[in-house]
Amino acid sequence: SSGSSGSAGSSGSVGSSGTSGSSRTSGTSGSSGSSGSSGSSGTSRTIGTSGSTGSMGSTGTSGSVGTSGSSGVPAASTGAVSTGAASTAVASTVAGSSGAPDASTGMGSTAVGSTAQSSTAVGSTGSSGTIGSTGTTGTAGSARSTGSTGTSGSVGSTGSSGSIGTTGTTGAVGSIRSSGSTGTSGSLGTSGTVGSTGSFGSTGSTGTVGAPMSTGTPASTGVFGTSGAPNNCSAACNLVPSDGLALQLSTWSTTGFASPTSVPSMFNATRAFQSFSALTPGSTNTVAAKIGGSPCLGGLQLGATPGFSTLTLPAASVSAVLRTTTVHPDYPVLSIAFVVRDVDGRTRVTRPDSLTVTGLTLSGTASCAPSSIDATTGVGFCDVVVAASEFGSTTASRSVTLSVMYGSTAAATAVLSASLARAVPAVSLPSGSQGMLISLPNSPRLPTEQFSVAAFGYTGVKKLAFFQITLYFNQSVASYISDAQVTSTLYTLKLAMTAGSASTKAFVTVIGTASDNAVPQIVGDNVPMLTAKFTVASGAVAGVTANAFEATIVSFTDVSNTNFVQVQAGRFADSRGSLDLAGLMTVWTADAVGLLSYASVPEIFNVQPLSGSTTTSTVNARIVKRSICTTGSGCATAGDSSGNVASSCAASGASGVGSLSGCTFTVGAATTAGSQGVSVTATSGSLTAAPVTIRVWHPSVIAVSAGSSTLSRIAGGRTSSCGMLFQSTPLAVTATFTGSGLTGVTVDVTCLATLTSSNPSIVSVSGALATGVAAGTAQVTVGSAAVSLTVVSSPTVSPVCMSAALVHGSAIFSPSSVPNQAQSPTASVTVSASYVKNDQTSLTSEGASATIVAFARLSDGSYLEVLPSMGLQVMPSNDFSTVLNSSTLLSTNTNYYRAFVMSNAGNAAGSCALEAKWIDTCSGSNTLLAAGPIAASVQLPSASSASVTISSGTPCNTGATCSISRSTDPAVQLGRRTSTQLSVSVTFPIQGTVTFTNDPRTVYTVVSGANLVAVSTTGLVTPLGGSSFGAAVINVTFPSYSRAASVWASITIRVDGVTGITWKASPFPSYTGSSSVVTSTLRKVHCTTAYQRASVSATVSLSDSTTADVSGNNYLSVASGSTSVVPAPTRVGSVYVLTGASAGTSNMTFSFGTGIAASAVITVTDTSATVSSLTWATSFWQSTSPVTFAATLGSTKTTVLSATFNDGTQFPDAISGVSWVPPASYLSFASDDSSRISISASGVATIGASSYRVPVTLTASAASCASSAPVSQTTQVYANLEPAVGDIDLGNQYGLPFSTSPYTSAPSVGQTFSVPMRINLGTGRKFTFTSFNLLYPSDWVKVHSIAYYLPTAYTAGQVNWCNN
């Protein structure tokens, strides 16, 4: 009940303004503040009738809301007319979102008084709290005569309940306040409305309670939680800090600058960037936004703009060198090397549209494209083909111009003088003559360069069907490449190369045989015999070699095998333009013909006064060497040397600007001025490059400033080591760069400068942030510039309030995409960025996170970023305690807390989801310095679907449905799995698909087949014991997870096993079709004592209707019931084989695991299976077309013969494939010519001589057996001896040695045939030389020709004919 002195007293009149505000002495309940402590209904907490008795009781407390709940004061500020207490009712009560008056503060220390409106925190919620128009009746204050009753009106005691109404009626004087009882509904309950009916009633004149509310001290402790209300938070600052969001060019090098920064507001910043000429042309950069930290260090980055480039400029000059000092008709390419630069000397230029060469008639393919220009060095190449019409009978010179074109405009040109060699006249042998002409290059060649040598035959009227020539060459000039590089379009070539010595030439022997004797191209003049490719020897000496090549015709042979040219020297056509017996070669070396140079950094900003670092630019040079080319590509860079190859450099205009050491230009401490251009000229030997210009900018003026010159101690603030905490201030450095011939430019170089403190024990500097350490004064300097900072311990500044927020995502940039920037020191772009601090930062998935930033406003109006190291703590409100976790530091930046959505979080939203508190943890009492609410919204959409599949790591057995088997089931032996792992995922509209396999909220339920499988809480499915098979259905649900309670998924898992086994016996050994034959009886083999055999195949059936062949499975066992008839089966290879031992029957049992078995009877009989047919195989012979036994003398070969029996069974290899039945026991073999091929009783053939006319006939027979007739079969085989090691073989390798295709009949009279001759060298021997006599009956045969088939590097020998 409010107001111990609750006597409404005569002075209690609320005043003419009716603002019974003064009488709203119970204002303490209005302290429900902005947090919605239902203050809006505060007006309803009219003191009511209780005013008359003074025992305002509980009703007084809510009155503090005032008429305009927004301020919690009556409409008239002078409410209390008479003795209204001097202080205020509501005063500074700021606690309690529940609206209930603070139990400890009651209504405040006084009645309404004139300042009743002073700081009522109820604020905006009090709109319904108007006291009403009748408040003017406060004039009845005289009624205070009864005020004495107010002694019982102590405010505090009932304030906790805030119920104003019921006790208010006790005021006898307050009869006129009959409606005062309305206070009963005005309790400041959680609804926040202080009782809509709590209007003061028509008689609000009861303001007589203006007596001081002695127990009602302001709720000064109404910070978060002190009122006990679950969601109360401190009020947030309305921040406009000088730090907050900042922008920086995140990818700039140390020579990149920004112009001065404008002062950013909270989460907004604008900054202009310029001096892009300090960046590499074409480089990509971005502008990044960050919150907090120092101007150059730390902070939390909130994204960056898309990359933008610094634009290159067009080429403005070009320096060029001719690489082809002389252009030749057979090497007609003019090759130019050049370097381009822009107007400022940079070699990174905008690529031209085209390159043109004028002054010569051009033709053919050219390689003169802008793409040849190196993007960094500016070096390019242009190769053009000079038209044949430009070459005359004498040498000539031409002036040519290289133009760099942009559209139709020549932006840069270079004029060069080109030399054209004379056109060498064509020469040839006299028409109709017989001989050989060899053509050589008409122009010089460079070492290692490839060139061609072409040979042409002159045959008169003869057809050149065959030739043998020798080409000699000087190895000091030319190198033979390989046989593959000697080609012909008309002849098949055989080659042998012989190396020379210091005194002899190397030579290559070439034998050519016409591919087609009927073509006309092999007769007459200029018959193209061959083209051979050579390279100029790598060590060739520059100059002319007159006898570089020689050639000899060994023989030219016509189609009638007549030699029409023998041992004749060839003639050469070379650069002399005449016919000569020796070929001339001119060798050039790749001499240097020019020098191109460029600077690594053509524009330098001297940053030494700022950072202490020197800056250098190296002048690189490229030595251009001579080149000669036949086509417009492929020769541009041969032999060049690039990089820093200049032997020396000289500079002009460098005095006071920089120093040159070698070819490195340096600016630094000695630099006193800038310059439009320092000229550097590079030389290498006798070569001098065109000068390179380097521009230098020097900081003539440097200025450093601080955001504040005084740094005060922050009351209660502590460093991480519990030392006193002082203010920090950002530093800024600008520099004006100038130079001779340059227009100065002022830019922000803060992040480039190295700032130092004159006394780090007073002021410390980190990056561009100065922080007080102890009281005193210190200078912060960069170069010669300085700013003075004073650190004071008293007076201190105190935290006033704090603003904090969740940030995630990216800032919004304007422009959203920074345009590419011109390469200019004055080019500038202004970028703005903002981060919208929403009232409720929305997080939409479990684990989603945002970073917490906090800023405190200090009593001097400055702002401070509060970090965890300074005592920042963040905790969730009660409503968010199971929603957000905010106690984890960012792993990537431990200066910030991370708030993330907890598992199983529900949806929640509020302006006070979290509260940031700045606490002095060093004081021992954890003193609260400042606090601020953090708004957040966790809106987790419901799942849209769920799915369950089999994990890829535990695949099911094949089939439409996953199948597993019990570990005791034989199916395990077939590779069936005994468990499988489920994989569960849930899909959310925003978050996407999330794995829920091991999530404790996932529930696995076997809804069908619960007797078959069990599922673990992590989704592992295993079969249960028993013998049942079938399908189990497993449902996956999420009943305890509200977001996914409506989705589910299902999967079917089968439990299967082996249900039976079938078997079959088939003939052994197997043959085509034997697998379909069922054998139940084993007979004797063709009247021998040996029995047939059978192999076993077995198949098991499974409960899922599938089958599996287990014939080779080790888990299969076969047992014989009578081992005297069928011995215990053994495996042959992977299958069981049944063997007969004696006549009778045996019950066979086939088992596959426990309980899976089948049985059958096998009969063994003495009845014979007799041979019904025999078939010779041929595939084992060395050749099957024709069938040939080709081997050295005495070699053997086991033949292959198949036997078919009258019961349909077969032995596919009766000789060596049936080990238990020797072939001699029922077969016999014979040969009709044992001198050539003999055959043993066991079917082994031996070669004794070659067949020259007819093949050898081999016969296999099976004698009569029982009632069967004898059976026999023949085959014809050609015998053809192979040479032994060191021997020579004459004739064909297969079939008849002397025959024509197909080599099965001897030649007839008049028939032409070939006689190959082969030598058997054996292993590891090299053939070097042979001499032999070939004897033949000259009265029977005539030799038409001899052809050599020699490997590379062998030479044909001499043939001598003798007649015996």
Helix fraction bin: under 10%
Instruction: Give the termini distance in whole angstroms.
Output: 156 Å
Task: Look at the structure and give the mean pLDDT.
Answer: 78
SS element count, helices: 5
Low-confidence stretches: 1-232, 239-244, 249-266
Number of strand elements: 89
For the report, how would you describe the main beta sheet? 9 strands, mixed
Global Rg? 55 Å
Estimate what percentage of residues fall within beta strands: 35-45%
Shape descriptor reads: flat
Strand and helix layout:
Layout: H1 50-53, H2 59-62, H3 156-159, H4 165-168, E1 245-249, E2 257-261, E3 268-274, E4 284-285, E5 287-291, E6 300-304, E7 308-309, E8 313-314, E9 317-322, E10 326-327, E11 333-341, E12 349-350, E13 354-358, E14 379-385, E15 396-406, E16 409-420, E17 434-439, E18 450-459, E19 466-473, E20 478-480, E21 486-487, E22 491-498, E23 506-514, E24 527-536, E25 543-557, E26 563-569, E27 571-573, E28 579-580, E29 583-587, E30 592-599, E31 603-605, H5 608-611, E32 615-625, E33 648-652, E34 659-661, E35 664-667, E36 675-684, E37 687-688, E38 692-706, E39 710-718, E40 724-726, E41 728-739, E42 742-748, E43 756-757, E44 763-766, E45 769-772, E46 776-782, E47 785-797, E48 799-807, E49 812-814, E50 828-834, E51 841-843, E52 849-858, E53 863-865, E54 872-876, E55 884-889, E56 897-901, E57 908-920, E58 927-938, E59 945-950, E60 962-964, E61 980-988, E62 992-995, E63 1003-1008, E64 1013-1015, E65 1020-1023, E66 1030-1037, E67 1049-1055, E68 1058-1068, E69 1081-1085, E70 1093-1102, E71 1107-1109, E72 1116-1120, E73 1130-1132, E74 1135-1139, E75 1144-1152, ...
Parallel strand pairs: 8-12, 10-16, 17-27, 31-38, 39-47, 51-58, 60-67, 69-76, 79-87
Antiparallel strand pairs: 1-5, 2-3, 3-50, 4-7, 5-6, 9-11, 11-14, 13-15, 15-16, 17-18, 18-24, 19-23, 19-25, 20-24, 21-24, 22-23, 25-26, 25-29, 27-28, 30-32, 32-35, 33-36, 34-35, 36-37, 36-38, 38-41, 39-40, 41-42, 41-45, 43-46, 44-45, 46-47, 48-52, 49-50, 52-53, 52-56, 54-57, 55-56, 57-58, 59-61, ...
